Amino acid sequence: MSVPAKTRLKPSDQRRRAPAISVLLAFGIGIFLDSVLNWSGWTWLSVCGLALSAAIVARRMKQQWLSVACLLISVCGAGAVRHHDAWFVGDSNEIGLFATAEARPAQIRGVVVQRPIVLHADGNEPPRSGRASSRTTSVIRCQQLRDADQWLGVTGLARVDIASEVSRLRIGDEMDLTGRMALPPTPGNVGEFDFAAMLRRQGIRAL
Q1: Rounded to whole angstroms, how far apart are CA atoms 34 and 79?
Q2: Mind giving me the DSSP string for the chain?
Q3: Which of 4, 32, 14 is nearest to 201 (CA)?
Q4: C-alpha pair distances (Å), 51 with each of 84, 130, 198
Q5: What is the pLDDT of residue 14?
């Protein structure tokens, strides 16, 4: 059975356009590039702005494909800016900005956001001085940090390690912690596992 001429579809009509996929792909490429290139946020902003300006000029010159390419480069730059802000900058009161490489006394208030995990020491290992047989690890969303006689409002996530078994904690519980706070340790040698980078991908910037 043949299809009537008036209902036949032209090849161009059968093509499905999905511009959102190209935009998402360009945004993702920008995130990836910022994670591997040591560029500043201002550099990525410049790339985004210049590409957007070039897209406008190409549009006025009726260079459609060049305009689209420049727009995608601009989106790529926007993705890099977003990643750079989240990875390197963060909020002005991010908890990681108050932490140092050397652990220092701190008192923090926050809410549990990750189910606590109890870790038990291997019974085959010889006992070590000062090492607990069990410890509990969790993640809290920091809300306040004590500074002398006042409490400062803070944001961000911190990983908590408690030198004992605490099984009663639940997600949503409020905690008032007193201990020692530090930045996650960075690799000491080339090729070592980057524990700090792993935590940062989870949004955790303090221990």
Answers
A1: 8
A2: -PPPGGGPPPHHHH----HHHHHHHHHHHHHHHHHHS---HHHHHHHHHHHHHHHHHHHHTT-HHHHHHHHHHHHHHHHHHHHHIIIII--TTBGGGG--SS-EEEEEEEEEEEEEEEEE--TTSPP-TT--SEEEEEEEEEEEEEETTEEEE-BSEEEEEESS------TT-EEEEEEEE-PPPPPSSTTS--HHHHHHHTTEEE-
A3: 32
A4: 18, 58, 32
A5: 46
| pLDDT: which is higher, 45 or 88 | 45
Within 8 A by CB and 6+ apart from 25, the residues are: none
pTM: 0.58
Total Cβ atoms within 10 A of residue 60? 9
Residue 176: pLDDT band with limits 50, 70, 90: very high
C-alpha to C-alpha distance for 154 and 100, rounded to whole angstroms? 16
Cβ atoms of 110 and 122 closer than 8 Å: no
